[in-house]
Amino acid sequence: MADQEDFEKGNSITLTRLDEQISWYSRKSRHARISYKSLKIIQISISATIPLLSIFIPSQAQKIMAFLGLLLLIIEGIQQLNQYQKTWLTYRSTCEFLKQEKYIFLARAGVYNFISTPEKLLSERIEEIISKEHGQWFSLQTQEYTEGNRKQSG
To answer: pTM for this structure?
Structure first.
């Protein structure tokens, strides 16, 4: 009886952790996607407006175009700083890997079919997927920091 309770407790903790991570990655992926696409739409709209201004408002176009160019630069800087597209794709990919692992586990398919403690393996695989994503994030942050310092000193 104790073995069954331990199994259910371990299973519950692991599945709770898995569901929380799926929810977190899904939410963060959605936020990054919306941020990326919104900023891109604004950027495209401003870029399309600049040539029209030079045609229809030639006397004031220079100041307005300079302001819009500055706005484009700021938006691009925000995108580069926050890496919304990379974050969106990385988090979505991680979320999908976690979902796939959950469904294979629940079906007791694949590697989970042949072992006596599938919840332990699930826990290890969840943490492996998350650790891999964290490693990619850290690598990206380090790369951006190094490139930023190189540009400032060069």
So the answer is: 0.79
